[in-house]
Amino acid sequence: MNQFVTEWNTWRDSRNSALAKPFGWLSVVGLHWLDTESTWTDASGTFTVKDGWVTVSLNSGIKAGPAAETFDLLSKVDNSGAGTFGSAGVNGAGPTRATSPAVPSDTSTLPTVTDQADAGAGSAAGADAADADSSAESVAGSDAGSGGHEAVPARPQVRVEENGFSAKLPAGGSLNWFTVGNVLYELIDRGGRLGVRVRNSKSPLLGKFFEVPVFDPDPDFVFLARFTRFDPFRTFTIETAQEDLQLQTQAAGIVTFETQHGEVSLLATGCPKTGLQLDFHDSTNGSTTSAWRTIDLGVPNQDGSLVIDFNRAVNYPFAFTSFATCPAPIEGNVVPFDVTAGERRPPFFYSEAGINVPFLFYVWWDEESAEVTRPWYSRFGLDITILNPTHDDARVSLVGFDGVAMSGGDLSPLGRKARSRLIDVATEAMTSRIPVIGIGAYSAFVIQAQRELRSQQGYVDGIETEYSAPEDRLLIVMNNELDPKQAGFDIVHTDASGLIYVEMPFDIPLESDRTEVEDFQAAMESGDSITSWQEFDYRMVALIRHHR
């Protein structure tokens, strides 16, 4: 293994370890924007806002304590009685709060830029590799009129009340505020909106996490670039991961590099003295990667030279949770080629509906049907990644997926490599004991994978003739991780290897007369026949969710 790959593997291990911390981004289970007075189901108290201060009055019987960051602030109290930052650093927890590119924050406004290397400002992508739950957010909130040269970042203030805590944040700041058992309450300011983000060290997403999927490291995605600084820095309005939230950010300058596609110029944010970052879009977004990604560029050399390594492009927290407020790239920051390097779109995600059910679907179908059916899966509770076996030829790890299906009515468009890949995917699913479903002609890949796997394991199943469905019916084959009877399917055959066979008539309509998810559920529970492909998809989703 060469040094390039070795260093990349070390970086990746650090990234995964940082994400797995108890109160890291994978622990986030809620985000609540505050009114003058706010509470919600499972809240530990009532939150009130007055003159920029947020106060929580704890419910009866609730025992809470200051989080480590708040405790550190309370130990440095000025004459007004409000805790402020002392020598421990801008985030109030000394060296354990140092910024790192391991876990980007979801800061929606970039830090105040400073030319003082010890002022503590960091990149918006900077985060605490030790805690994996904090970032340079506390120094966020740049002054658009400062020209990017304000020297002293604003600081949070905290107080202990008779029945709770109070805190006041700087613009764009955040504070790990107080804890109740295994739950941490984080106070955030985004564009003048105050909110409470809830983190739970026992969140289902954190418990499920193993690693973030990645592309294989490729030296061709490493470029020598040149940074040209703006003076003063330029201010832009940006979108965020929250649809109703727009904020301002500052671009520190332009990074330019040569590729086989020509010269590429992109805007960099952050600070040249403490570290630049590059938020970018590319054409893989929404398919194999999340909606946008970011790279830590580090500090440029004195001549402005630096290295852009897309192999270290990472997901912002919004790729894991709907409760992040991550900054989108400045408009126009688009890489003009497929960046098949760095982190892929993670299959796991947490929202108000709970943890998602990530599912990988290899399918060859007409676009008209696809446009109709794709939204069904999301509505029915399946977070589906759809790949075309003839076009998407990169290997996809099944780590994090709760199941895989492959569907197609004709094998002729598939080349040898595509067929081999589908058999490999089915084999990996079976050995990982996750559901695998073959639909139509693609059921052959599930069958062949099972035959080869059983033979390798020393089984002699004695199957001489494969089962075939009548011409007017669609064959569906699945492994025995699933019980199709639970979703109202009739099993027509179970072979000696344990594969289960189900059939569906071809001549049913695409869409159902039913409109509400509750109606689909009631029909399944009452044992009604499946009379549309929409109902078929609902019951397949129900099977996967039940297995989960």
Question: What does the model show?
Answer:
It contains eight helices and 28 strands. It has helices at residues 3-19, 68-74, 204-208, 367-380, 416-431, 443-456, 517-525, 533-547, and strands at residues 28-33, 37-38, 45-50, 53-58, 65-66, 99-100, 127-128, 157-161, 164-168, 174-180, 183-190, 193-200, 222-239, 246-259, 262-271, 275-280, 293-298, 305-309, 314-315, 350-351, 354-355, 358-363, 383-387, 404-408, 436-440, 473-478, 491-494, 500-505. The chain has a seven-stranded antiparallel β-sheet with strand order 18-13-14-15-16-17-19, with no helix packed on it. A seven-stranded mixed β-sheet has the order 23-22-24-25-26-28-27, with helices on both faces. It is globular.
What attributes characterize this protein structure?
single chain; about 550 residues; alpha+beta; 7-stranded mixed β-sheet; 8 helices
**How much is the radius of gyration in Å?**
26 Å
The amount of beta strand, in percent, is 25-35%
Helix content: 10-25%
- DSSP E strands, number: 28
Could you list the spans in which at least 5 consecutive residues all have pLDDT below 50? Answer: 84-100, 108-152
